[in-house]
């Protein structure tokens, strides 16, 4: 009975474990087959081994297990009195004890015998030490059958302390009565204990039969649960497949929902836009309706006005026809007047040329410069130069000399000269240009025109031709004013069908060498030679010279400023800003009238000659000396050419100088020429002024051929 009672808690604990196992299998069907296999393996292992032979009671371990609530089983535990049994009972053979006291050791069981773990054996110790013994499923039916089939080991109660003292005291061999009494006492104790164990064994057998019945029910429930698990597993697989299909469909539905959501948002935005447009259209419609009403009224008024205008138009058409005939008549009159105007222009040019020829092909204008501020301190008035109040063409130089008969008497010498025009020091640049403007007009008419300034150094030639460094409208020289007149007159002639093309060049002759003033940094070894443009033409052309086509007067002014900056200028004793070269500005004019098939070509040459100087006054040395000698030589060659032309010699020495060679067309008869003779107002320059006037008088007396019109 001891062994069966000890197994009851284990059976109850196994039932709990089996119930937990069944719940786990129901929750996890895919682990059912594996769990059943492990359960059968554990049952077979329990059937092979006997727990009474390999386990011993470890009271200390059981006590520790009872003191640890986290590891103690919830099944009924043995009482403390039972735990105090002497460990020596394990060494008593139960069969001997039962046979000795007349107890039966056989128990009938329908199930195979399986070894039962003792309540005080090693199995309980392992159950208390770890969770593995409690969590492993136990076959309770097999355990009970093992207990019934095996011979139980009867536990003997430990003797009390008094008995132990008696037994421990060895009785002598002769004290048989004492020994017998001791044996009787022990026998009584054993019978008492055996009666107790017999009652407990009956209770255990009752419990065993109940457990057999419960195990049968549990086996049936387990088989039913296994079938249910297989059905649930198949259902679960079907549900999983269906779930996957539903998940795929759900993903598609989600994608379609997202797409529809986006479409819905787009449609919502479009609806908002359309709503706004509808509102705007409604507003526009209301405005259009109001405008329509207004326009209807306007249309009615317009129709009425249109009828009135149609009546007026018919009247005006008739009037227009009359005016058209009048216009045709006026057009014929305009054509006649244009023809008459053209004839008048041709007559004007002929008469203008006749007037210029009457004045002379080489005209001479004399100009006396005013005193400078530095010169006015020593000489407030110009006494040696006299002008006629009634005649603007006369100039007189006077000089007092000692009498040859007496030292006290002085004689006054007078030198009278008569030129085309004499300008006093008070004359302005505009006054001077007004007299030569008609000559500039001849250049547009198709005649070659040459204007040059002659005089001693410091007499105002550069100021007359170019003007000061800082020019105003009052101080412009002859070259800028001539350019302005050329461009303004060409613009006026456009109304008559004339168009013009202008080409400008600017050079200087320095020490008998030609230099291009429009090139700031000329290339080395560049040679400028004067050559004929063609064998049939007498026009001259300079090789490597820069010719610039100009369309506005400002372009020409910029070229003049550039040439003025590049011109050779030096300081001498006679002039702080003495020009050391002859400068020549040429403007080629090409005009055409396509309506009348007329063309004309001419060249306007404006020359600023270097001033003649006396070496004793200029005190020139070195480069200045060579420059003065070259200037005087070229001016002497110009005088020889003028004398040859005046004497009508057969050979004119144009090639003696680059200056005369370049101006041969302007001096040889096919040009209209004008010379400015500039005089210094200082009395100390009397001799130089007298020489300049005498040279100008020779030029004025020179008669050359008539200039030819260059027209095709």
Q: What would a concise description of this structure say?
A:
The protein is α/β, with parallel strands linked by helices and 712 residues long. Helices cover 55% and strands 14% of the residues.
How far from one another are the termini?
A: 163 Å
As a percent range, the share of helical residues equals 40-55%
**Major β-sheet profile:** 9 strands, mixed
Which consecutive residue ranges, at least 5 long each, have pLDDT under 50?
Answer: 1-33, 46-75, 78-168
Count the strands? 16
Radius of gyration: 76 Å
Treating each run of at least 4 consecutive H or I residues as one helix, how many helices?
21
> Beta fraction of the residues?
5-15%
Mean pLDDT: 75
Query: From the helix content, strand content and strand pairing, which structural class follows?
Result: alpha/beta
The gross shape turns out to be elongated
Question: What secondary-structure arrangement, pairings included, does this model have?
Answer:
Layout: H1 2-27, H2 32-48, H3 51-54, H4 59-67, H5 80-83, H6 94-101, H7 122-129, H8 132-135, H9 140-149, H10 161-168, H11 176-359, E1 362-368, H12 373-376, E2 385-387, E3 394-402, E4 410-418, E5 421-423, H13 429-445, E6 449-455, H14 461-465, H15 478-493, E7 498-510, E8 513-516, E9 530-532, E10 540-542, E11 548-550, H16 553-566, E12 569-570, E13 578-579, E14 582-593, E15 598-608, H17 615-618, H18 623-646, H19 658-662, H20 664-667, E16 672-679, H21 686-701
Parallel strand pairs: 1-5, 1-16, 6-15, 6-16
Antiparallel strand pairs: 2-3, 3-4, 7-8, 7-11, 7-14, 9-10, 12-13, 14-15
Helix pairs in contact: 1-9, 1-11, 4-7, 9-11, 11-13, 13-15, 15-16, 18-21
């Amino acid at each position: 009975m001891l062994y069966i009672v000890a197994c009851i808690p284990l059976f109850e604990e196994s039932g709990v474990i089996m119930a937990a196992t069944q719940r786990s299998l129901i929750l996890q069907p895919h682990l059912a087959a594996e769990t059943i296999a492990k359960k059968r393996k554990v049952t077979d292992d329990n059937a092979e081994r006997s727990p009474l032979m390999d386990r011993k009671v470890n009271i200390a371990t059981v006590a520790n297990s009872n003191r640890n609530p986290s590891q103690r089983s919830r099944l009924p535990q043995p009482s403390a009195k039972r735990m105090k049994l002497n460990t020596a009972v394990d060494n008593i053979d139960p069969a001997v004890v039962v046979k000795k006291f007349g107890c039966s050791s056989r128990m009938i069981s329908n199930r195979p015998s399986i070894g039962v773990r003792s309540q005080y054996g090693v199995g309980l110790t392992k159950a208390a030490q770890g969770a593995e013994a409690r969590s492993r499923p136990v076959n309770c039916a097999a355990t009970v059958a093992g207990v019934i089939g095996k011979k139980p080991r009867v536990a003997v109660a430990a003797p009390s302390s008094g008995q132990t003292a008696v037994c421990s005291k060895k009785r002598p061999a002769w004290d048989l009565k004492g020994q017998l009494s001791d044996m009787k006492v022990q026998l009584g104790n054993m019978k008492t204990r055996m009666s107790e164990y017999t009652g407990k064994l009956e209770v255990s057998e009752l419990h065993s039969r109940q457990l057999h019945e419960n195990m049968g029910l549990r086996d049936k429930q387990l088989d039913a649960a296994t079938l249910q698990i297989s059905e649930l597993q198949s259902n679960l697989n079907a549900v999983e497949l269906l779930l996957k299909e539903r998940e795929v469909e759900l993903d598609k539905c989600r994608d379609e929902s997202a797409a529809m959501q986006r479409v819905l948002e787009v449609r919502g935005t479009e609806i908002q836009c359309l709503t706004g447009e509808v509102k705007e259209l409604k507003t526009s419609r209301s405005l259009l309706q109001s405008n329509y009403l207004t326009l209807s009224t306007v249309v009615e008024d317009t129709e009425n006005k249109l009828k009135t205008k149609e009546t007026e138009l018919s009247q005006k058409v008739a009037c227009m026809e009359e005016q058209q005939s009048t216009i045709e008549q006026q057009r014929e009159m305009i054509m006649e007047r244009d023809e008459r105007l053209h004839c008048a222009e041709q007559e004007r040019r002929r008469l203008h040329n006749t007037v210029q020829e009457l004045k002379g092909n080489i005209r001479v204008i004399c100009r006396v410069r005013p005193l400078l501020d530095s010169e006015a301190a020593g000489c407030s008035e110009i006494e040696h130069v006299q002008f006629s109040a009634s005649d603007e063409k006369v100039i007189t130089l006077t000089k007092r000399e000692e009498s040859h008969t007496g030292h006290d008497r002085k004689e006054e010498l007078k030198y009278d000269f008569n030129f085309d025009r004499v300008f006093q020091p008070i004359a302005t640049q505009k006054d001077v240009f007004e007299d030569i403007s008609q000559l500039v007009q001849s250049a547009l008419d198709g005649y070659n025109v040459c204007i040059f300034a002659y005089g001693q150094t410091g007499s105002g030639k550069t100021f007359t031709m170019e003007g000061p460094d800082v020019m105003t409208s009052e101080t412009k020289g002859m070259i800028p004013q001539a350019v302005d007149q050329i461009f303004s007159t060409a613009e006026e002639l456009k109304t008559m069908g004339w168009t013009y093309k202008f080409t400008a060049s600017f050079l200087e002759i320095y020490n008998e060498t030609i230099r291009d003033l429009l090139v700031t940094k000329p290339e080395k070894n560049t040679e400028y030679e004067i050559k004929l443009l063609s064998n049939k033409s007498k026009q001259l052309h300079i090789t490597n010279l820069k010719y610039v086509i100009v369309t506005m007067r400002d372009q020409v002014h910029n070229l003049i400023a550039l040439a003025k900056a590049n011109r050779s200028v030096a300081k001498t004793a006679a002039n702080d800003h003495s020009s050391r070269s002859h400068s020549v500005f040429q403007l080629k004019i090409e005009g055409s009238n396509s309506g009348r098939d007329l063309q004309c070509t001419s060249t306007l040459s404006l020359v600023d000659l270097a001033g003649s100087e006396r070496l004793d006054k200029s005190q020139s040395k070195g480069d200045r000396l060579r420059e003065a000698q070259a200037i005087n030589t070229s001016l002497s060659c110009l005088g020889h050419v003028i004398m040859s032309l005046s004497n009508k010699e057969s050979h004119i020495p144009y090639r003696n100088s680059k200056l005369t060679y370049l101006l041969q067309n302007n001096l040889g008869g096919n040009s209209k020429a004008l010379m400015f003779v500039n005089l210094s107002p200082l009395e100390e320059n009397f001799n130089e002024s007298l020489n300049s006037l005498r040279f100008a008088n020779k030029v004025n007396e020179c008669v050359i051929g008539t200039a030819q019109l260059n027209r095709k």
